[in-house]
Write the structure tokens for this entry.
Amino acid sequence: MTLRIQIACGGTGGHIFPGIATATVLRERGHDVTLWLAGKDIEAAAVEGWTGPVLSVPAEGYPRRLLDWRSIRASLRLLLAARRCRRRMSETPPNVLLAMGSYACVPPARAAARLGRPTVLHEANVVPGRAVMWLSRRATAVAASFEETRYYLRRIEITVTGLPLRRDIIHRAIELERRPRPSAPFTLLVMGGSRGAHRLNEVMVAAVRRLGPRARAMRFFHLTGRDDEASVREAYDRLGLDHQTRAFTLDIADLYAAADLAICRAGAATCAELALFGTPALLVPYPYAARNHQLANARALARHNGAHLVEERDLDSVWLADYIAGMARAPERRARMRAALRRLARADAAERLADLVESVAYDHRRSA
């Protein structure tokens, strides 16, 4: 039975990519799938390759301070966006709306509720964002990436699906897992998200200098972000080290697979990818993330013994150099972390979320 499914996933790649991953599964099952975006320039690259219909209604998130003119303006714009969504949605009402948790999903979710259509929410991080906290009370079903999210939504039934990842990354992880790990030098992957992390880059370069001759027996993959690429590359070159330094890369799968240890932030997608590839990690959460959600994500992986955690305020080059040297001498410890991460991995997260969306839609049809 063909369903009309709409997916609200606008705002950032962290919401768009999981939305498209789930949309792809649903389209392959024969359903009509439409994406709702927020009309941001950053969305264009994220939806490249998506050939289905796209609807766009401008929306913006709430500022941190809720009692000022910006929050009033944001509230008014969300209300206007919800009205536009309702008008457009009423032309071809969906059987179900999947909302991926960003501020951009609020207008479509409100419109769906006004039209009496069921809504499935998905929360990527351990700590729900304000949109999910608000919408979860009226949602038909709520899905999450982490088991720990149950603590924050205690009175709501949650289905833990994992975070849907791009299919090319999943296929590459499965392919590489079947190959024996090469006996290469101890390899470090350092990355700070799509825009890099200046503090992480700075401390890492200082730690490598402190490693001295020990660093020459290692290999470094360092994704710096645009601003620090030249200075970090120059530092590695001066030390005569085996390294690949780039601002960013689209071939992240091979780097995860080659790394013996990652030093990185703790966004939801990064945590899901680390688990998928079984890459042991030192997580340094971004300290200014909304509701400090990266710290909660990092604690979840550390609690399951798949990663170590250090807050940015406690990170210094002396400690980091000692940590890297110690991990390089501990292959058994890394193997245990790798196994723990793979137990957390959910390669079928998109299929699990698609199952939930279908179930909600079919139940609603039968009860209508």
User: Anything to note?
Assistant: The domain at 169-344 is CATH 3.40.50.2000 (Rossmann fold). Residues 25 and 143 are 16 Å apart (CA to CA). The longest strand covers residues 32-37. The mean pLDDT is 92.
